[in-house]
Amino acid sequence: MSQPMGRQRGLCGAPAGVVGALDMSDASVPGAARAVGPTGRRRSWAELLAGRVTRQKCNPEREPQLKESAVQLLRRHQSLQDLLLEVEDPPCKKLCLSKLIDCDSHKASTDRSSSFIGSALRDQALRLGVPVGILSARMVACSLEQVCEERSHPVLLSSEQRKKLFPLLEIVQYLLAHSMFSRLSFCQELWKAQNSLSLEAVWRLHVQSVVSLPELLERHPDVQGVATWLFRNLCLLCEQTEASCQSSDVSRAMLSDFVQLFVLRGFQENLDLRTVETEKMSQVATDVLQRMLTFALDALAAGLQEESSAHRVVRNWFGMFSALPRMVPTDSLKKFFSHTLTQILTHSPVLKASDAIQTQREWSFTRTQPVLTALYRRLFVVLSPEESVHYLQEVLETHEVNWQRVLSCVSTLVICFPEAQQLVKDWVARLLAHAFENYHLDSMVTAFLIVRQAALEGPAAFPSYAEWFKASFGSTRGYHGCSKKALVFLFTFLSDLVPWEAPRYMQVHVLHPPLVPSRYRSLLTDYVTLARTRLADLKVSLENMGLYEDLSSAGDVTEPHNQAAQDVEKAIMVFEHTGKIPVPVMEASIFRRPYYVSHFLPALLTPRVLPAAPDSRVALIEALKRADKIPQSLYATYRHACSAAEEKPPVGKSRFAAPGMKAEPGCAQEPLGPLTAALGELRALMTDPTQYDAVSAQMALVSEKLSAALGHSKDDSFCERTKVRLSVLAPELKQQDQLVVDLLLSAFCQNLMAASSFAPPERQGLWAELFVKTLCGHMLFPAVLTRLCQLLRYQGPSLSTPHVLGLAALAVHLGETSSACLQVGLDPTGPVSDLPVPEFLDSLLTCRTRESLLFCLKFCTAAISYSLCKFSPQPSDATYRCLSPGLIKKFQFLVFRLFSEARAARPQEDRAGLPWRPLYLPSGDWPTAALSLWRQSSFQVLLKEKEFLLTYRDWLRLELEIQHEADILSDTERQDFHQWAIHEHYLPASSASGGCDGDLESACSVLVDMLMDFHQSPRSWDHSGSTDWILGGRTGNGDLLSRLQEMALDVALEQDTAMRHSPSSSRGHFLFSVFRRRLQTLGHEGSVAASLRRQQELLVCRRLLLRLPPSLLLSSLQAQQQPTTASCEDFFHLVNSELRNFCSQAGALTHDITVHFFRGLLHVCVRSREPSLTASMVLTECQTKCPIILTSALLWWSSLEPVLHSRWRKCSQNTLPGELQKLQEAQQFASNFLSLDSASSAPNPAWVSAAALHFAVKEARKESIRRQLKKLDCEREELLVPLLFFSLMELLSSHLTPDTAGSLKAVEVCAEVLSCLQKRKCGWLVLFQLTETDAGLGHLLRLAPDQHIRLLPFAFYSLLSYFDEDAVIREEAFLHVAVDMYLKLVQLFVCGETSAVSAPGSSLQPQGQSWLRGNPVELITEARLFLLQLIPRCLEKSFSNMTELLASHGDCDPELSSALLSRQHAVPNTDLYEEPHLF
Asked: How far apart are CA 1261 and CA 1283, in angstroms?
């Protein structure tokens, strides 16, 4: 057919008359069917074909072939519009699809219904004999091509094009719904016009479910062609995503769908289900993803310019990865991300390891392109840190890598994940182990590169390189210590690094060299020589290296004088917080003497005007001077220059300002500008929840700006200290540090408020953790703690709601981070010396006044609510780690105290979510918020944990802190609260829930315990109050003491009732049980500190005892026994074991305890059926079990007697009981003895009369004592021996408590009594050999403190001048006693106990008494000389049992022991009395 093609074409693309031509050709065949039927109508194409089939031989195999040929002919040549024009009647010409699509109004498209078009298509297909699906597919493809012809955008449709496209898609959806559309044919026809297609049109087909993208892409005949087309269009789409604001949503949705499709099909999970079509789609997907990744990596390698077209493409493409976790199954996503990570790490591996060693400093996190670090972060969101490290290790072992990408990935990993630090350490450890086991150089190189890269990110992310190198090779446990071959391998490797590495690393290797055995020392020497030569070539002085060098700094080396100034400031800071000379300073003074003397000391000793109160610099200088680390001449020059500076009048600014100080106030703000800007950018990220993944990068920038603002480096770490020392009483900060800390704390609070306005804490990402981690890893952290101390302890009530919320959240994260391992050293006077950070912050919250109670409630409510919201609705390990138990207990205490509705046994639980609306929480809603938190089921679950439960002890401890006059509760409210807490809440509660199991005695015991603890501990570092125990004072303990008194009486009534029903159930009083347990806990250490602690404990015991009813001193009345008795065993034990030693004078208790006992005795007697008999039996028991009670009564008889008479007359008309009358008679005897006309004899028992006489003599005037004591010659021995004992005790007391006049008087009394005993040849030596089992005088040992009994040897030799020489020589036992006393005296001196003894003033010393003229050493010397002179004169019988005596302590004086043993075996000397007289 040669005729030209017309505008209107018919079927198969032929002119309109082609059908007639076909009919003519068929008519020329014999027997052929006519083209025109009998009725004159045209026959259909099927009829024509049927006619030909009937005239041909039947061939079944040919029939499908013919049909397929016909269909292909139609597909290639049909034009539906021409076909409609050709076959339709003239009215149908208006159904042209192009005109339908061009209609502007929606009404027009609805008027021409899809059903009419479908009907027309069905009729036409029937006439043509073509499947309607094929016909409609070709029609739609042609129409879609026309829509996309006029483009205003490479990949997106214009608004006009969309108006045309949407009606077409509606028609297609109708056709699909009625099975009138062939997707297969449509895809094939569509790809013929590939170059005209718009990517948005293709995507619209997918979105409107016309044909899915996988189906469309699978029908493309050329895989590479479609991949190229998609790559080109996706690049254009990424480039234009942000250019058109109107289509930005469409472009992002398109990009998201394409990325999702490619990842799903390229990395699908089940490979077994793949068909040929799906395999083709998988190839397309992986090809496109690879092309996009390669383009991005090439662009990154070439250097991206901000806002360039390539930068937009890369940023938007990688930005789509953040949405993939919500759209793609985890397994497929991990496959894609691991593949992507591998491609990144292995792309363009042109850099060698030597290049990496030289330039890796430029690949730190902050210097890596943000687009790449953002990509790493998105990959790490899905790949856990463990998986990421595993992939890194696998890629390094199996591929050639791009070291820049690998090391920047390591930096991002340690910055973004706290747990990555340990993972990287373990990885490096495995690499080193493998390297030294197999001498594998690649593993060694990899390990060192990774460690150096991680160390560049600062101590918050990874330890410094110097610290790691020392830990790995500086000990015998190092990897290199296994053999000489390992040492050679190590030093060969280090030597090979020398030409390439920075001077800083060589300085570390030289200053902290590997530990090498002495026989291999030459290996180390050779390396050190090489390194020093290289450093010299680089003009770097090893000796001038600073103490705190920065291995992460961009510069090579700091000038020595500049570095020294920085070292001084850092050393002062470390010293200020630790109280110790920093380790680097001490090491430099020994091993780096040139730098220390030439640079560090001159910078430290810069002359200046010294402050009135020594500051940290002065303290460090003095500490170094005491340690002999500052030459005397240099120190003298410094002091002279400082004195000269003080004399000069201040003119302008001092030129002797300390290094690092800013001269002008305004200068302090300049370094904070970049930091403020960085914090502002961080806050902007908080307002956009979609940008939370960029927080870690911004925090790294904040850390860098923070270091720059303070002049510190990232290597300034806390690694050399685990404790921060703070002064809670007077927390002070430097002005610059306070400005920076306030800026950081304000930023944290503002960030929290901004983030909380968009999302609850659990959906705010990791910004808070990263922020706190930056603070904890910085040298500024002690200043942060100091500022928190100032704010929480002293300014808490004045803080606003945002500040309270922010600081509470900060406290939670401080507990969560590794700062919990850091110990905070408090003032030495504090209740505890060291506290973890969470407990330290909790200790700053006081509950004493109305204001502090309300602030504590706010802070606790905010902290607990934030913690439960942040980590989990139900308590988890993170909750337990970040919340101090003390903080939760304080919250319970405050809720119980302030809200009566919270005291219900079972609070109404609120199972709704925890509210966290800080922006809408005015201060008046804090009570509501606290009660809401209290009712939360998650909080009630938390309280089931034992460590968080507010026990009875915890409640008492907090209640004791309340100041009575500043309490938020009135007196009545407080009493009601105490009544509820004790009797309704804790008393009936089980011990497992912190209660008392209904045991009132147990409740009293705990209350006594807490009262004693509280009044012995410092008042939470508040020493403004009196050191005395003021009951009922401002601390609020008066009310609790009243509760104790009430409860103690109830306990006594319970015990009395129990005794009446079961006498055998008698047990001691709870009060003495508490005393006994606490005293046993203290032990009996001999140190002065232990003695003072025990004395303080007893002082509190005594004061508490005196404030309880006196009847408690005697246990319940045993009424069933005849006669009735009262038990005093507990009180007697306390007196004999403790009060006798610390709360007594010589031989008597204090007045208050004595009166208290007798008041209790009278109370018991009143309740007894036989008062006189009960009193007599108790006092008789005192004679044998607690005799000091009776001597105490004698001492205080003048004030005690009127009280006894008065009380006794009220309860009985009889005279005083018999035993009390005996005391009265003894007192009368003593009084009569001192009168001149006395002639009465001493009543029995004699020792009681001796005690009364002793106290009377003690009160008498010194002038008349000697004359009055002459009457002792008439008294019997039973009185004189106890009297000498009491006199000796008084003598020792006068020396233990310096009293010159009392000492001389005591000596005179002892001398007179001793003289009387010697004259009458009475056995007085028994007093120095007493034991408690001695029947006659053993009870005397219970009348004096143990210290007095131990010092009897001192008293013995104090009377040396008054011994009768004839009597002592004739007395067989004297030598044995004298030697025993001498050996014990020497032992006392060796143990230091004689240091407590003081001698009287020299002006009052009597002549001839050499023992009073000096210290105990002179007394020992006199005693020794006395014994050496006495030994030759003693009788042989005197030396019996001497060997046994010397066996125990004879080594104290070998010369004396030798003399005794020699004399013991010598022949008796008959001329014994011819020796010179001793006296």
From this structure: 18
- Cα 461 from chain centre: 17
Per-residue pLDDT band for 855 (boundaries 50, 70, 90) equals: very high
Range from 578-592, 1118-1132, 1178-1192, 1312-1326 carrying the lowest mean pLDDT: 1118-1132
**1011 CB-near residues (< 8 Å, 6+ apart):** 960, 1037, 1040, 1041, 1044, 1104
Is residue 67's pLDDT more than 80?
A: no
With contact defined as beta carbons under 8 Å apart, do 469 and 475 qualify? Answer: no
Q: Is 429 helix (H, G, I), strand (E, B) or coil?
A: helix
Q: Which residue has the tokens 């006798």?
A: 1140
Tell me the helix, strand and coil percentages in the chain, rounded to 5: 70, 0, 30
Q: Does position 659 have pLDDT exceeding 50, yes or no? A: no
Q: How far apart are CA 561 and CA 133, in angstroms?
A: 88
Residues 6+ apart with CB under 8 A from 559: none
The type of residue at 204 is R
Residue 485 identity: K
**What CA dihedral angle connects 483, 487, 488 and 490, to 10 degrees?**
140
Give the pairing type, strands 823-825 and 723-725.
Answer: parallel
Residue 118 has pLDDT above 80, yes or no: no
pLDDT digits (tens, 9 = 90+) for 1024-1054: 443 344 443 344 567 888 888 888 888 888 7
521, 528 contact by CB (below 8 A): no
| Residues contacting 445, CB < 8 A, separation 6+ | 353, 493
Residue 1131 has pLDDT above 80, yes or no: yes
pLDDT (0 to 100) of residue 1027: 38
Helices 223-240 and 248-266 cross at an angle (nearest 10°) of 140
Which pTM was predicted?
Answer: 0.66
Could you tell me if 869 and 938 are in contact, meaning their C-beta atoms sit under 8 angstroms apart? Answer: no
Nearest to 929 by CA among 841, 807, 804: 804
Residue 1274 scores a pLDDT above 80: no
How far, in Å, CA of 782 to CA of 824, rounded?
9
The full length of the chain comes to 1479
Residue linked to tokens 């009243």:
1042
Of 886, 977, 887, 869, the closest CA to residue 932 belongs to: 869
Per the model's pLDDT, the better-predicted residue between 1290 and 759 turns out to be 1290
Give the Å distances, CA to CA, from 748 to 693, 809, 811: 18, 9, 11
Q: Give the mean model confidence (pLDDT) for residues 1295-1306.
A: 74
- As a whole number of angstroms, the distance between CA 93 and CA 646 comes to 111
**84, 96 in Cβ contact below 8 A?**
yes
Please give the Cα distance from 1453 to 1386 (Å, whole number). Answer: 9
Helix (H) / strand (E) element for 724: namely: strand 723-725
**Distance separating alpha carbons of residues 1235 and 1228, to the nearest angstrom:** 11
Q: Is the pLDDT confidence value at 896 over 90? A: yes
Host H or E run for residue 1198: helix 1197-1211
The HSE-up count of residue 284 (CA atoms within 13 Å, CB side) is 29
Q: Beta strand 1125-1126 with 1117-1118: parallel, antiparallel or unpaired?
A: antiparallel
Q: CA–CA separation, 1189 vs 778, rounded Å?
A: 65
Q: Which two tokens stand for residue 328?
A: 């793609």
- Measured from the Cβ of residue 1374, the count of other Cβ atoms closer than 10 Å reads 17
CA atoms of 114 and 112, how far apart (whole Å): 7
Residue 1088 CB neighbour total at 10 angstroms: 11
To 10 degrees, what angle do helices 330-346 and 370-382 make?
A: 140
> Does the CA dihedral 148-154-155-160 come out positive or negative?
negative
Interacting residues of 933 by C-beta distance below 8 A, sequence separation 6+: 861, 864, 865, 891, 914, 939
1148's enclosing H/E stretch is strand 1148-1149
Q: Walk across the sheet containing 823-825 and list its strands.
A: 723-725, 823-825, 834-836
